[in-house]
Specification:
Elements: E1 6-11, E2 14-19, H1 30-45, E3 51-56, E4 61-63, H2 68-71, H3 77-95, E5 100-105, E6 108-110, H4 112-118, E7 122-126, E8 130-132, H5 146-154, H6 156-165, E9 169-170, H7 171-176, E10 182-184, H8 189-201, H9 205-219, H10 223-238, H11 241-251
Parallel strand pairs: 2-3, 3-5, 4-6, 5-7, 6-8, 7-10
Antiparallel strand pairs: 1-2, 8-9
Helix pairs in contact: 1-3, 4-5, 5-6, 9-10
Length: about 260
């Protein structure tokens, strides 16, 4: 039986998905992608989990990229294309999960590792984290939607510079560019991420899911269409049980029980 290369731990309403290949700096091979794909199927059907944290094992790397040794065996453009398509589809599944997804980056997030982090709703990084898309040093380009998600996150001109120079950026630089939401001291990364998770979990879960959906769908719409979508979803939520409890709790000056 093949040993699992990932581990999904569930603790109440929070799940943590760890990539577990520390000796390979958690590099993404086909098996890891398949396991992430399967975890996403499970999470999509599990309505009790509200937050997903993705991390890498060890202290050096979140994920240091795709597995180059495995990629060397690709003997045709079709096989390479299929690998790219499967990785992109897997990360799209992650991006569209109903849970809020957080990349907890403690070290290198390079190539496919940065693409994995970009598929999460936001990134929290240790001060020791490093980010980059170095594929052009291999004669390649990002293959798991990195050209698209990085551009949407930091803008086209910065994305072109990041990819064409293949530079590695510090957590502080990534935060300045808008890639990372928070930078913490290295030994406080886990506890800070848990604090953010706990804040999310205490709020109305269905409303959070709807807010995430409206934000992501709205990006692809004209502004007026996005506002119309927001108003429609606001109206539907207004008559729901969460809104009734939330407003009742506000009037009664007590915490809401969602």
């Amino acid at each position: 039986m093949t040993e699992s290369l990932t581990h999904l731990e569930i603790n109440g309403k929070k799940a943590t998905l760890q990539i577990n290949r520390p000796n390979q700096l958690n590099a993404l091979n086909k098996q890891v992608l398949e396991e992430i794909h399967n975890h996403c199927h499970f999470l999509n059907e599990n309505k009790q989990i509200k937050v997903l944290i993705i991390c890498g094992s060890g202290d050096k790397a979140f994920v240091a990229g795709a597995d180059i040794k495995e990629m060397q065996d690709f003997n045709s453009p079709e096989r390479a294309t299929q690998f790219s398509i499967f990785g992109a589809k897997t990360f799209s599944m992650l991006e569209n999960l109903p849970q809020i997804t957080i990349a907890r980056v403690q070290g290198f997030a390079l190539g496919g590792g940065l693409e994995l982090a970009l598929a999460c709703d936001f990134i929290i990084a240790s001060e020791k984290a490093r980010f980059g898309l170095p594929e052009v040093t291999l004669g390649l380009i990002p293959g798991f939607s990195g050209t698209q998600r990085l551009t949407r996150r930091i803008g086209a001109s910065k994305a072109i510079e990041w990819i064409s120079t293949a530079d590695k950026y510090s957590a502080a630089e990534a935060h300045l560019h808008g890639l990372v939401n928070h930078v913490t001291k290295h030994d406080e990364l886990e506890s800070f991420t848990d604090q953010i998770s706990d804040k999310i979990i205490k709020n109305a879960p269905h409303a959070i899911q709807v807010a995430k959906k409206v934000i992501k769908q709205g990006i692809e719409l004209r502004f007026e269409e996005g506002c119309s979508l927001e108003s429609s979803e606001f109206g539907l939520l207004f008559v729901g049980s969460e809104a009734k409890e939330g407003m009742k709790a506000f009037i009664e000056k007590r915490p809401a029980n969602f």
